[in-house]
Design goal:
Blueprint (H helix, E strand, L loop, with lengths): L9 H37 L1
């Protein structure tokens, strides 16, 4: 489920703007974790 920024009510967006940086950081960490998992999975599949 994806929420486009313009679909989020403005007041809600402003209220959560303080935690946006933390969310972005968490997403980046999650992305790199998924990349590592995919890398390991691909390696074990190729064996």
């Amino acid at each position: 489920m994806k929420i486009r920024i313009d679909e989020v009510p403005k007041e809600k967006k402003e209220k959560h703007s303080l935690s946006d940086n933390k969310i972005i950081k968490d997403l980046e960490e999650l992305k790199s974790l998924i990349n590592k998992i995919n890398f390991i999975a691909n390696k074990s599949v190729k064996k």
